[in-house]
């Protein structure tokens, strides 16, 4: 292993035997490097369990400077970016690195969960003004920490939907070319409509009618804005941003001509195998469930609330369930681009069959045999403000081509375990966050506001029953 | 004058220029090396450029879309052999495939004696035209669609002359409906004492003012000529007024040098001289390529020659109207002065040069076609083409052998282009006395196959009114702190030119913000596009239009 010493500003890097490994008092993360390389092929239940245990250790690990934590010469940007002549502080609560472990924030109610207001992160591009030390929204968007339970199913849904949408596009282009006339098709997948596209005979695709999705028709299901394609992409981003742990697959010499891009004396801090273990653990986290703790009053109220949920129109965006054809989670996945390991970059992806996991048996199936994923979401973006209800319009910066008032539908599964609410985690009750829905959520919100207090209570009872298993 | 350097290059360039850093980066080349598989014959390309002494030079190709499918087709010079037209039948990401088409409306005598070809839409219609550079009368082929052409010398009032033409460039001057054409001429064989010291003047063909169709009846001699082998209009100082840069062959001129001509709109051209700061450079100038390597808005130039390739950068201390250049080829490891494989250490002979990002790492690379003139014993006999891959510190690393392009051919003209619309740049090399080479870029080789290189975007500009291809437009592609600049141009290289999508490698960026400075000086808004796509940007538009190539 490569160990760095900093003496009077002089960074020394040398190789020493791994004498510190696996001692109880060691100050390095023993799980790092334990996954020697990116797995491949279908993993058995035992192999998957072994991998996820390592991933769990890495998720909970408080990375140390001896692991390579910190990024003195690199910013938090998702594109490897040098800090120039400025040194990035070891920790900065605003611009980062801002935490020791993934679970420092993702911990409510258990590791992999959400976090309360204190775990908010400050999302900026990290290019020119990367070292802001203010929560002023002109520098960053302040965001709450999302939970990761069921994230593997979410990503699988997004992949199938992306594949279907891009298939519709390809068919439209082909049809237009063959017919010699425009072909307009609805972008419908899994019951969600993303508008329309029109293909022309010369191969153009007109996108004026696109709705709630990026122009490349890739569904990016993660983050409040829906700008992250995969757990893998998010993990690589977050490891650098929050911990200064840089993944070789983006910060390594292939793309940066350096093995120690952040110049902290540690080369290739996270291997493809390390990232794979983290992805495997996150992807296999159980889906949230409905639970009223055997309380008949709660159960009764929740059932009534579920009816109201539909009647008020909440389910238009917070769709109860989306059908999923396969539980085989491939890592790396098919839709990441260079800089995040993807399916085209490896000989064979690893397959984590979620059907091997006990919790997956609770997933119901539809008449086609598809697994119904009870996410209460649509994996689509919506405008969440209007001139009268604008509480969600509190950001100044757009993010990755997504305007400031547009957000991805929050999946409501697990919401009973993850107060507070809203993209800034600054709404303490469900009542507040429902009332904050403007724009595309306005009609449902108005229906809630117009409902009786009993009905409102029943709706809350329903939402509170959507919990993370502890 | 302020020069802006991208963060990633600033330190290295500054230190290199200050003489602090070693000339060339140390450490193994770690970025992707594209595996370039030669498959001309399998792809249906058979064309040999050949002929006696007059065809020791030339050997070019034009790459452009002749049938409206946006896939790059090829017109390849043959010297004594007839020029050939090949339509691109490749599918997206598939094997390269071409089919020869007849240049049906062109008499056989006009198909021969062709040294080079450049595409340019002279009459602003829907079809690309082609200029054939010939030993004797040059020819303008007017595109008619479906890869049909007709000779337009008469209808464009264009006298093709009798010279030995080896270079071409075109630009739309302000308020002109049609392009100004520049022709670079080589040795005047009719002069006493030829070939020594008998260089032909070059020619500037400006369109008649206020004419409703191209009228090139008024030709201007650019004298003195110094046996040009390449020329290009280039906005060398980012002033918005392109000048004409000319590479000249010292083999035959006497008292000559490399040239830069000021071409002020509506006024007579004027050659820059030592009074302007222009420094005499005497080389066997054979090809010109430009790229803004340091992101300061002013292009660097790769000048091929026999022996050292020159890589010229504007002196940062020079005033903005002073074309004072310094050679940074040695500092950046781009001299490419002798073969990089084999035991022959005699000097190389460089021809076509072209910048492109062939491994999509967001760092510009340099291709140079190499090959002995014919049997010059003082120069390398086996002289492989160069693929100088750019590194993050601004230097270059020769990877031609690893990429698989080091063939025992005599390269001349070339086209670096994405022939199968997979975002990875392929390569056509026109060889003297041998079939062309066509290399398909398969991506990076691994022990299990090939993996794609980095992200990319390809941009087609559609200008309003005249100049529909937006020749002269500048494209800025911003990803993070990196801004990559491209110029839409026709000219340079060696007898070879192309028109179509402009390719930009994006590395690990999954999206880009694009700004266009249109030829009329208007800047576009920032236009957002996702990586790994072909986009068309129309003048005045605020969003791109995505284009999808034909699939299998």
Largest interface, with counts of residues having CB < 8 Å to the other chain, equals:
A-B, 42 and 47 residues
Instruction: List the secondary-structure elements of chain A in sequence, H or E.
Output: EEEHEEHEEEHHHHEHEEEEEEHHHE
How many distinct folded domains of chain A?
Answer: 3
Q: pLDDT average of chain A, as an integer?
A: 94
Number of strands of chain B: 39
* Low-pLDDT ranges of chain A: 1-20
Helix content of chain A: 25-40%
Q: Kindly state the number of beta strands of chain A.
A: 16
Helix content of chain B: under 10%
Biggest sheet of chain A: strands, sense, closure? Answer: 3 strands, mixed
How do the strands line up in the largest sheet of chain A? 3-12-11
Secondary structural class of chain B: mainly beta
Number of helices of chain B: 5
Strand content of chain B: 35-45%
Task: Please report the distance between the alpha carbons of the first and last residues of chain A.
Answer: 37 Å
H/I helix tally of chain A: 10
- Our estimate of the beta-strand percent of chain A is 5-15%
What's the SSE blueprint?
The complex is a heterodimer of chains A (470) and B (552).
Chain A: E1 2-7, E2 10-15, E3 41-42, H1 45-60, E4 121-123, E5 141-143, H2 151-179, E6 183-189, E7 192-199, E8 204-206, H3 231-243, H4 248-251, H5 253-256, H6 272-283, E9 289-290, H7 296-311, E10 322-324, E11 328-331, E12 350-353, E13 371-373, E14 381-383, E15 406-408, H8 430-435, H9 442-450, H10 453-464, E16 466-467
Parallel strand pairs in A: 3-12
Antiparallel strand pairs in A: 1-2, 4-5, 6-7, 7-8, 9-16, 10-13, 11-12, 14-15
Helix pairs in contact in A: 1-6, 3-6, 7-10
Chain B: H1 7-17, E1 34-38, H2 40-43, E2 61-64, E3 73-76, E4 84-88, E5 98-101, H3 108-111, E6 114-119, E7 130-134, E8 139-145, E9 148-151, E10 165-171, E11 180-185, E12 202-205, E13 219-222, E14 228-234, E15 243-248, E16 259-262, E17 270-271, E18 287-291, E19 300-304, E20 310-314, E21 325-327, H4 329-332, E22 350-356, E23 365-370, E24 386-390, E25 396-398, H5 400-403, E26 411-417, E27 426-431, E28 437-445, E29 450-451, E30 455-462, E31 474-479, E32 482-487, E33 490-491, E34 497-498, E35 502-507, E36 511-517, E37 527-530, E38 533-538, E39 545-547
Parallel strand pairs in B: 2-34, 30-38
Antiparallel strand pairs in B: 1-28, 2-3, 3-4, 4-5, 6-7, 7-8, 8-9, 10-11, 10-33, 11-12, 12-13, 14-15, 15-16, 16-17, 18-19, 19-20, 20-21, 22-23, 23-24, 24-25, 26-27, 27-28, 28-29, 30-35, 31-32, 31-36, 36-37, 38-39
């Amino acid at each position: 292993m490569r160990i760095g010493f900093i003496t009077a500003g002089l960074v020394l890097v040398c190789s020493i035997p791994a004498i510190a490994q696996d001692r109880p008092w060691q100050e390095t993360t023993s799980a790092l490097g334990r996954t020697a390389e990116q797995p491949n092929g279908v993993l058995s239940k035992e192999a998957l369990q072994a991998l996820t245990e390592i991933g769990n250790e890495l998720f909970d690990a408080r990375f140390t400077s001896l692991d390579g934590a910190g990024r003195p010469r690199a910013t938090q940007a998702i594109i490897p970016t040098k800090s120039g002549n400025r040194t990035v502080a070891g920790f900065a609560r605003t611009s980062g690195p801002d935490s020791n472990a993934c679970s420092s924030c993702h911990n409510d109610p258990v590791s992999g969960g959400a976090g309360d207001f204190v775990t908010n992160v400050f999302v900026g591009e990290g290019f020119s003004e990367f070292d802001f030390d203010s929560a002023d929204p002109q520098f960053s968007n302040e965001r709450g920490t999302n939970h990761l339970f069921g994230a593997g199913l979410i990503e699988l849904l997004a992949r199938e939907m992306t594949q279907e949408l891009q298939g519709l596009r390809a068919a439209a282009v082909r049809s237009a070319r063959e017919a010699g006339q425009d072909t307009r098709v609805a972008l419908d997948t899994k019951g969600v409509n993303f508008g329309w596209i029109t293909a022309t005979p010369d191969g153009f695709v007109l996108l004026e009618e696109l709705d709630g999705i990026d122009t490349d028709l890739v569904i990016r299901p993660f983050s409040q804005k829906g700008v992250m394609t995969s757990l893998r992409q998010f993990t690589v981003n977050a490891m650098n941003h929050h911990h200064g742990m840089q993944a070789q697959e983006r910060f390594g010499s292939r793309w940066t001509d350096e093995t120690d891009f952040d110049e902290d004396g540690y080369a290739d801090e996270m291997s493809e195998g390390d990232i794979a273990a983290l992805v495997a653990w996150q992807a296999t986290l159980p889906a949230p469930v409905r639970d009223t703790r055997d309380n008949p009053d709660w159960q009764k109220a929740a059932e009534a609330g579920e009816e109201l949920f539909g009647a008020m129109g909440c389910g238009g965006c917070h769709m109860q369930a989306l059908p999923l054809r396969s539980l085989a989670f491939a890592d790396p996945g098919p839709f990441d681009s260079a800089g995040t390991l993807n399916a085209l970059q490896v000989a064979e992806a690893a397959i984590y069959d979620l059907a091997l996991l006990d919790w997956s048996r609770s997933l119901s199936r539809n008449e086609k045999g598809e697994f119904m994923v009870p996410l209460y979401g649509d994996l689509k973006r919506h405008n969440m403000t209007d001139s009268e209800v604008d509480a969600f319009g509190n950001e100044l910066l757009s993010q990755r081509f997504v305007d400031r008032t547009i957000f991805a539908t929050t999946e409501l599964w697990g919401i009973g375990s993850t107060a507070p609410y809203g993209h800034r985690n600054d709404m303490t009750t469900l009542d507040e966050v429902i009332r904050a829905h403007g724009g595309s959520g306005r009609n449902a919100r108005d229906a809630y506001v117009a409902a009786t207090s009993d009905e409102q209570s029943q709706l809350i009872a329903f939402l509170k029953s959507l919990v993370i298993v502890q | 004058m302020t020069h802006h350097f991208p963060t990633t290059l600033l330190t290295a360039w500054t230190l290199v220029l200050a003489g602090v850093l070693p000339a060339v980066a140390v450490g193994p080349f770690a970025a992707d090396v594209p595996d370039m598989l030669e498959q001309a014959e399998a792809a249906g390309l058979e064309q040999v450029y050949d002929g006696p002494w007059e065809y020791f030079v030339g050997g070019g190709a034009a790459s452009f879309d002749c049938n409206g499918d946006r896939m790059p087709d090829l017109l390849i010079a043959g010297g004594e052999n007839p020029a050939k037209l090949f339509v691109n039948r490749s599918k997206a990401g598939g094997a390269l495939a071409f089919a020869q088409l007849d240049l049906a409306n062109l008499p056989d005598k006009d198909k021969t004696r062709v040294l080079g070809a450049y595409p340019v839409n002279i009459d602003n219609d829907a079809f690309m035209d082609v200029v054939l550079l010939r030993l004797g009368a040059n020819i303008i082929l007017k595109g008619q669609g479906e890869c049909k052409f007709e000779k337009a010398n008469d209808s464009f009032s264009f006298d093709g002359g009798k010279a030995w033409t080896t270079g071409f460039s075109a630009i739309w001057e302000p308020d002109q409906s049609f392009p100004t054409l520049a022709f670079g001429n080589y040795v005047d064989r009719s002069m006493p004492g030829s070939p020594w010291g008998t260089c032909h003047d070059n020619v500037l063909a400006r369109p008649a003012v206020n004419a409703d169709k191209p009228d090139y009846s008024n030709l201007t001699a650019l004298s003195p000529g110094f046996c040009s082998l390449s020329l290009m209009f280039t906005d060398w100082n980012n002033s918005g007024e392109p000048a004409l840069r000319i590479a000249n062959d010292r083999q035959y001129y006497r008292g000559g040098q490399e040239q830069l001509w000021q071409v002020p709109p509506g006024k007579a051209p004027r050659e820059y001289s030592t009074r302007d700061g222009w420094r005499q450079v005497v080389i066997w100038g054979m090809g010109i390529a430009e790229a803004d390597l340091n992101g300061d808005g002013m292009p660097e130039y790769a000048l091929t020659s026999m022996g050292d390739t020159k890589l010229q950068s504007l002196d940062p201390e020079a005033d903005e109207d002073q074309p004072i250049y310094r050679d940074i080829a040695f500092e950046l490891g781009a001299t490419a002065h002798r073969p990089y494989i084999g035991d022959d250490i005699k000097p190389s002979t460089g021809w076509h040069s072209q910048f492109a990002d062939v491994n999509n790492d967001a760092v510009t690379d340099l291709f140079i076609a190499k090959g002995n003139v014919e049997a010059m014993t003082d120069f390398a006999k086996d002289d492989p083409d160069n693929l100088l891959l750019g590194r993050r510190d601004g230097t270059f690393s020769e990877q031609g052998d690893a990429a698989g392009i080091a063939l025992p051919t005599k390269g001349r003209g070339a086209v670096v282009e994405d022939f199968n619309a997979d975002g990875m740049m392929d390569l056509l090399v026109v060889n003297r006395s041998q079939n062309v080479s066509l290399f398909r870029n398969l991506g990076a080789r691994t022990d299990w196959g090939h993996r794609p290189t980095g992200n990319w975007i390809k941009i087609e500009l559609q200008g309003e009114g005249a100049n529909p291809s937006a020749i002269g437009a500048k494209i800025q592609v911003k990803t993070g702190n990196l801004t990559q600049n491209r110029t839409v141009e026709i000219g340079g290289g060696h007898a070879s030119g192309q028109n179509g999508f402009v390719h930009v490698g994006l590395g690990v960026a999954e999206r880009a913000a694009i700004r266009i400075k249109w030829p009329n000086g208007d800047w576009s808004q920032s236009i957002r596009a996702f990586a790994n796509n072909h986009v068309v940007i129309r003048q005045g538009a605020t969003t791109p239009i995505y284009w999808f190539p034909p699939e299998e």
